[in-house]
């Protein structure tokens, strides 16, 4: 009954290393990517390359999707040649993209009507966590489906939590982006005050990271922000996509998120200056703009 | 030349356990507190109790002060019967309070005129860190004075960094409060969105804490906030005192800190409802008020 054949659709910065970790864990992996060239490194590691998402699903007990936006996942799962055309009843589809909770619920229902299980299982931990197999994975869907899929998830992540029914994984991922975005603002305002007060921000980061105001962002992205290294990591454009989903979901429940709304406006300043492909640590540049420094 | 005789003025939630750790490390400790009863537990541990701050300083090579506000530290150091009246030339005064950087510079100059060394050395890590001797300590002042005082600081803290000249310790502490305050808002907005979307916030905290959006606040205060446990820790009233210092210092350098200003307004909502003695995790209650839940 253990899962042996796994599919992976979407071999980008996150999906590529996640699929590679499934291969290393001993699963038979079939892959597909919109831009076919991205499948080549996986083929070299031993993956089979399919001609369509439907073909991936027809060869897999569990099929992962890891794409960018709601419309992308709807297309590869429900569109022509999509997963739903190839997946057998009793198989499982797991979407690791960050999309609207409503999209996750739609996919769950459409697949359930064919007897196919579905989990929304977005991830956190960046390309570093994807490569190391240490992602945090937040899964929504049926508990029995989660239990059955767990060995495959364990090949890619370290902290793997079934957080509730369909859509709950995406809700938790949106909460993750709320917290991450505000932790970035915390980092940026601390660096700005420190610099403009004439104190070395590298020393500030060293000691503040060790106390009650410490965070992953301060520790990992603070030094890059101080050094002026704005290479992504996680791009401003993608963060804005996610914060758009956050504020949409918050509006549906009339949940005021004044801090998150502010973070979105600061990233808007960067996008307005064609810096959407910078890493999110570039939020320090928005504060420099506010202060008339640039 | 090693320091043997140490004084401690201000035996509150932080100062009491810090003085106890100096005793445990083998220093001869003399203490004084405005409310004399708070000196008794230290006397039982072997501390001498002096009749005034001046007497503490006259018996000590290094004298610590750990009080609440700028006016308190000015009074115990510069006021009648204050440290400056008893401290010998060549001795050292170290203020661990969180006060304005300008106050630290004033104390440095007034003491330097008498040949007395001064460090501003505020701390982070809360009562837990004070008891465990694991505080983060951010010290401003002369490097030679820092080096000489280091063994005494090591009895109380774990990460101890000389961050720059007089006042720099307080600047870094204010940066710490900026980051801590916004990390609290991150925690609160994530919990609010999660709850109002019908997902269990305890599961959200478990998985988000493990990823790139993790922070000390989310990990340590998130569970208390979710459980409705608002006992301090660190009180809203004291956070507001510190955020007042932050915004004053930011104004002097014309540094826009829109997120920190927002955090201050949310805590203002709690103070308006007589909840200033709650712990800072009560910021989740401000978001409930915004959402019309209370």
Automatic annotation (TrEMBL), chains A, B:
Family, similarity comment: Belongs to the HIBADH-related family.
Domain 6-phosphogluconate dehydrogenase NADP-binding: 5-164
UniProt xrefs under PANTHER family: 3-HYDROXYISOBUTYRATE DEHYDROGENASE-LIKE 1, MITOCHONDRIAL-RELATED
SUPFAM superfamilies the record matches: 6-phosphogluconate dehydrogenase C-terminal domain-like (SSF48179), NAD(P)-binding Rossmann-fold domains (SSF51735)
Protein origin, superkingdom: Bacteria
UniProt name for this protein: NAD(P)-dependent oxidoreductase
Domain 3-hydroxyisobutyrate dehydrogenase-like NAD-binding, chain residue ranges per copy: 167-286
InterPro entries: 3-OH-isobutyrate_DH-rel_CS (IPR002204), 6-PGluconate_DH-like_C_sf (IPR008927), 6PGD_dom2 (IPR013328), 6PGDH_NADP-bd (IPR006115), HIBADH-like_NADP-bd (IPR029154), HIBADH-related (IPR015815), NAD(P)-bd_dom_sf (IPR036291)
Keyword vocabulary terms for this entry: NAD, Oxidoreductase
Taxonomic path: Bacteria, Bacillati, Chloroflexota, Tepidiformia, Tepidiformales
């Amino acid at each position: 009954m253990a899962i042996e054949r796994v599919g992976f659709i979407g071999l980008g910065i996150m999906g590529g290393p996640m699929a590679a970790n499934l291969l290393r864990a001993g699963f038979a992996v079939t892959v597909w990517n919109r831009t076919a060239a991205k499948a080549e490194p996986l083929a070299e590691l031993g993956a089979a390359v399919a001609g369509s998402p439907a073909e991936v699903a027809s060869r897999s007990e569990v099929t992962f999707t890891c794409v960018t936006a709601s419309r992308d996942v709807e297309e590869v799962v429900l569109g022509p040649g999509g997963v739903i055309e190839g997946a057998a009843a009793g198989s499982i589809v797991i979407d690791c993209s960050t999309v609207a909770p409503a999209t996750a619920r739609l996919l769950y229902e459409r697949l359930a009507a064919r007897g196919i299980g579905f989990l929304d299982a977005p991830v956190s931990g960046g390309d570093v966590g994807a490569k190391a197999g240490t992602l945090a994975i937040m899964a929504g869907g049926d508990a029995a489906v989660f239990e059955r899929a767990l060995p495959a998830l364990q090949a890619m992540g370290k902290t793997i939590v079934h957080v509730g029914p369909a859509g709950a994984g995406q809700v938790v991922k949106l909460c993750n982006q709320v917290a991450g975005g505000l932790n970035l603002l915390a980092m940026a305002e601390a660096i700005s005050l420190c610099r403009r007060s004439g104190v070395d921000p590298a020393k500030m980061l060293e000691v503040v990271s060790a106390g009650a105001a410490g965070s992953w962002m301060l520790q990992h992205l603070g030094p890059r922000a101080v050094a002026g290294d704005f290479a992504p990591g996680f791009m401003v454009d993608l963060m804005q996509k996610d914060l758009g989903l956050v504020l949409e979901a918050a509006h549906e429940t009339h949940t005021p998120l004044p801090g998150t709304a502010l973070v979105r406006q600061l990233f808007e300043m960067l996008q307005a200056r064609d810096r959407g492909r910078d890493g999110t640590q570039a939020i320090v540049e928005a504060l420099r703009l506010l202060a008339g420094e640039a």
